[in-house]
Every structure is written in C-alpha cells, then in structure tokens.
Amino acid sequence: GEGAGELAAALAAGVFRLEDGLRLAAALTGPEAALPRVALNAPTVTMVSGVTGSVLQPSEATDNAHWRKLAGDTAAFEAGMATLAGIGADVVIEIGPSTGQGASMASDGAQGEEAAQRVLAVDGGGGFPATVARAYEAGVAFSFAGLFAGEARRRVALPSYPFQRRSFWVQPARPRT
C-alpha cells in the first residue's frame, strides 16, 4: 500500500488493530506530527512498504519513524512493484481513484502482458465486485465466511419473480427488554 493504503495493508498484516490504525491515520498530518501511542506488531505476512518500495522488516513495522514517513515521503510505487515481482507475488490488487499504473508497469516488465493481467485495478467506481471476480478467475482463494464476521445479519425472503403479487416488507427488529 501507499499512504492510507499502507495503513490498510498494515491492518490486514496484523501490525495494529483497527482502532489504532484509525488513530495513526488521523494523526498523520505532517512528518513532524506527534503519533499516538499504539501497539505495533511485526507483520504476520510479507508486506511491501509504499514508502520504501521494499519488504517491510519487523523492526520497521514496530518503529514509529516508519509510520511518520507516510505523511511526508513520496511513494515508491515503481520500486514496490519491482519488489512484488521479485518475491513472486501472484496477484496485485490496485485500489484507488486513479488506477492502472501497476498494470502499465507490469506490462513493461519482463513478464509483459501476462504480468499485467495479474494486476487487478479497483477504481472506486463500483469496480470492486468485478475485481473480486477477476481475482477469483486468476486463482485467488477467498474466505467469504470472514467477510461479514461479527455482524448481525438475517435472511429476508424475496419473491422469485417480479409478478408474484405478494408484499415482502421487512419488519424492524423489536427492542429487547
């Protein structure tokens, strides 16, 4: 990840809890910003830093100086893509308002078009479901059971075709006493 994306990647890698990540994001207004005290852990998976473009070492992940760099340093996107290719990343998911830079860099590399097809872009314009489908087609195994873990959900019966002529109003949950 780069910028806020690196914070999201760190959360996914177990570097900190969601609440701590939000505190860090709110505090990163400049390179001299005082960071809140948060519990930082070594990543549980290999993580490539958007700041350095290299694999994030456990000592860097637990050092506030690394997170302070997010506010002031320029992203090392090209170096990060090279590192991902070097460590054999199967699929890269590029998320942001303007995507496509990763696929462009991958197609210019040694693997050419094949590598570019493994860079999946989520442009924020409703493209996430299509990107998940492309990742699935590329062989990424998803754990959909964990997607809504911890949320209270219930099934609602819906008509199987549009002219069933029955109403299906959802009743609000009754308050518990």
Structure, explained:
Helix content is 37%, strand content 5%. The radius of gyration is 21 Å and the shape is extended. The longest helix is centred in the N-terminal third of the chain and has 10 residues, at 18-27. The protein is mainly alpha-helical and 177 residues long. Strands 1-2 form a two-stranded parallel ribbon. It contains eight helices and two strands.
Note the topology:
Layout: H1 4-12, H2 18-27, H3 58-61, H4 64-72, H5 77-86, E1 92-95, H6 101-108, H7 113-117, E2 119-122, H8 128-137
Parallel strand pairs: 1-2
Distance N terminus to C terminus? 46 Å
Beta-strand fraction estimate: under 5%
| Class derived from helix and strand content | mainly alpha
Largest sheet: 2 strands, parallel
Query: Overall pLDDT, averaged?
Result: 75
Radius of gyration: 21 Å
Number of distinct helices:
8
**Strand ordering within the main sheet:** 1-2
Number of strands: 2
Shape: extended
Query: Secondary-structure element sequence?
Result: HHHHHEHHEH
The residue ranges in which pLDDT falls below 50 over 5 or more consecutive positions are: none
Helix content: 25-40%
